[in-house]
Amino acid sequence: MHEPAPYAASEARSRGRRHPEPAPPYRSQFQRDRDRIVHSSAFRRLEYKTQVFVNHEGDMFRTRLTHSIEVAQIGRAIARILHLNEDLTEAISLSHDLGHTPFGHAGQDALNERMHAHGGFEHNLQSLRVVDELEERYAEFPGLNLTFETREGILKHCAPENARQLGELGRRFLERRQPSLEAQITNIADAIAYNNHDVDDGLRAELLTIEQLREVSLFEREYLEVERRYTRLPGRRMIHEIIRRMINRQVVDLVEASRARLGEAAPADIDAVRDRSEPLIQFSPEMAEQHRALKRFLRENLYRHYRVHRMSVKSAGIVRALFDAFFADPRLLPPDYQHSIREREAAQGESGRARVVADYIAGMTDRYAIAEHAKLFNP
Ligand code: MG
């Protein structure tokens, strides 16, 4: 093990848990966070939640669970090279998508639209609600009672009106400051993971072609190199060889550019990292541009592909119909949710009811949402 860098997150300087607990005897605080996340119900449900492809479309595609594991793998590798806290990076990576609705962004947008008059719906904030309130696992407290540092990392984005209600955790969004380096790593590891695995899944689903991808410089460069080194490599091995090289090139660039920036800025500690207006973990300007170009390509050619769009429209319809039905008649909900609605309605009126309905829907897997929709609406 390397000496941790002075600006790494450390449990000795942790801002602690909302409900104080004795330290675990044989694990670090951040390992404990990671373990609690892995044992949570929301984590298990990631297996059946869409990343881009609806889960039942095939067994070969990424789901939110395998995506989260890939993020953790890339994140840990980067954290280790930069002498940062690997356990914290892993805990943030594994929990960063816990608040996602079924059906990926289509589901989240539909729920946000229905929640418009009731404070909106943001999946980042929902991930925090899952670990702070919604998980029911411990006698002593609601949620998972994670450390401040893990919660800080989970909350990647936050609208100002929500940030104002979050106290210390929300303050950085109002003051334009940064989270820990471990959280910054997770943000980019997330993008590296999905950009590259979406290329792989898009090719597998035959929504993208290699010819199209050759317009993307990140892809083209590795394509030419692989073709030069290995003539006549069969299709799948060729694609995987290209993608692994793309990931490697992005990670190496990120590590080298960030190391240079850290050397220049020389933050004294984690609070000096937080006080900065810009993240220190960043690609070089050239790689940042190539990375954006890949993202643009995927938006135009994959996420807006008519076959993906058809699924998105259908999924949004399911989420809207479920929300409207449960909101109009809460007695359609399981008894414990009806109970939560009575409690929250007493305090917050209709918005309280809407929030419980949103929590119920957000917690659903793709197939559970489809089944609920069929039970409610099929004659
Ligand atoms: Mg993600």
Which residue ranges are poorly predicted, with pLDDT under 50 across at least 5 consecutive positions?
A: none
Shape: globular
Bound molecules: magnesium ion
Average pLDDT, rounded to a whole number, is 94
Report helical residue fraction: 55-70%
The percent range for strand residues is under 5%
Helix-and-strand structural type: mainly alpha
- Radius of gyration using CA atoms only: 22 Å
Describe the structure.
By secondary structure, the protein is mainly α. Helices cover 63% and strands 0% of the residues. The protein has 19 helices and no strands. The chain has helices at residues 29-38, 41-45, 64-81, 86-95, 104-114, 123-134, 148-154, 160-163, 171-175, 181-204, 210-213, 217-229, 235-265, 270-274, 285-303, 306-328, 335-348, 350-362, 366-377. Helix 10 crosses helix 15 and helix 12 crosses helix 13. The model has no long low-confidence stretch (mean pLDDT 94).
